[in-house]
User: What shape does this take?
Amino acid sequence: MQQNLRRGRFRESIAGKPPATLDELLVRAEKYIRIEETSDVRAMTPSKRRARRKAALSAL
Assistant: This one.
């Protein structure tokens, strides 16, 4: 399974300590997804952040 993952911290985490269950794998994956999404938002310019917030609010 590891060979199909992109290189990065998640892949290293899985290789270093393989998850015992599918649930553990999903919990760890969600953690890395949140980290990546937070990094993406911080890397955006302020105008892109505002546009993303507006889109999220209008979807509610």
